User: Fold this.
Amino acid sequence: MNGILYLILGLFFAVGFAKDVMVLKFHQPIAVAGEQIFEKALASALEKRAKLLVVELNTPGGFPESTRAMIAKMKASLIPVVIYVAPEGAQAASAGTFLVYGSHIAAMAPNTTIGAASVVALDGKEIDHVMQKKVTNDILAFARSLAKSSGRSESFIEKAVTDAISINAQEAKKQGVVELIAQDLADLLAQLQGMKVIVGQKNQVLAFDKQSVEVYEVPLDLQILSVISHPMVAYMLFLAGIYGILFELYSPGAVFPGVIGVLALILASYGFHVIPFNQAGFLLILVGAVLSIAELMVPSGILGAIAVIAMVLGGVFLFETSFFYEGLSWVWVMMVSLIFMGLFFLLARMVGTAHARLAMTGVDDIIGAKGTCCQRIALKGEVILQGVRWQAYSEQVIESGQSVRVLSMDGLVLKVTKDEEN
Assistant:
C-alpha cells in the first residue's frame, strides 16, 4: 500500500515538476558568466524534462572562447536549442551572430538586427595587419563550418565578418539566416509546434504543451558574476579598490575607505579572473595611483597630470584584444578616471585641512585637551580629538572607547594618557 502511495506521489511530483519549454533570457555580453548561465539553463531544462530550450538573445557580442563553448554545448545538447533574437530593438551583434548560426532553430522578432561580426580590438582600434589576417581567416573558417552544418547562409556570415554588415529580421529570413520571424514568445511557440529539427543526427518533430513554459531563474552568484565581469564594472571596482586603500594609507585609521577598497579589489579580481586582461594596463593604473599620492605629498600639478594620463592609458589597454567585443572607449575611461581621482584628492585635502586647522589652533590649545581612544593603544594607536582622528602613542595600554588626555605633541602625533577623571 505504501509503495503504491509513493508511486502516485512520485508521478504527481514529476508531472508538476516537468516543463515542456524552458526559456532563458540572455540579455548580456557573451563571456564566462554568460557561458555558465547558458550551461545551467540547459541542465535545468534537461532536469525538468523540457522538450526544447528557447534562448531570448540580445547581445552586443563577446569573447571568442565563450562563444565557441556555448556553441559546442548547443551542438551536444540532447534537446533542441532555439535562439530567438528578441524583444523588438534587440541585436545579435558580433559573436551573437555565431550563436544564431550554432542553434538548431533560429528566429528573430521584428525590428531586430544581426551581423557586424568583424574582427576588432577591445579599444575599437584596428589590429596589426598580420594578426588581423590571421584572426579573420580563423573566424571565417569557423563561420563557414557553422553555416554548412546549420544549412544557413554562408555568404551573409562571411560578409558579416569581412565587411561588418548587419541586416534586419526580414532580410535575415529572406537570405536564409534564420528560419522564423515571431512577434513574441507565444507566436514563436505556435510556429515551432510540429517543426522538424535534427538533434544529434536524429530527426525530431517538435510537439509540446505551449502552456507548460518556465522562465529560467539565474542564480544570484551568476547574476553578480555577470555584473562584475563586465569590463566597465571591473575597471570601476579596480579603481575604487586602489583609491580606497591609498586613502587608508594616506590617512591611517579612517577604516571605512580601506574596507571598501579591499572589498572592491576582491570583486574586481573575481571579474578579472574571467576577463582576459593586459598586464601593461594593470601596471599603468598602479603607476597612476602612486603618482596621485605623490601629487598630494609634493603638489606640483605635473605629477597629477601624468597620473591622469597613466590612468587613462591603463584603462584603455587593460583588457586584451577580443575578436568579437568592442570595449572601453577613451572618453568613458577618462571620465571615470577623473571622477575617481577628483574624489580621492577632495577627500584627502579635506582630511589634511582638518589636521592643519586643528594644529594651527596652537600646541597650548591641544595639550591638556581630552579625547577618546578609537583604536587600542599599545605603544601606538589612534584617538579622536575635537572630531579629528589623530595618531597617538602612550606608555600605557589604553583600550578603545576610553577617555584620554593629551600630554604633548610631536608633529601630528599626540602623546596621551588615560583621563583618570572619567
Q: What stands out?
A: The first strand starts at residue 21 and ends at 26. The chain has a mean pLDDT of 83. Residues 330-360 form the longest helix (31 residues). Residues 238 and 268 are 5 Å apart (CA to CA).
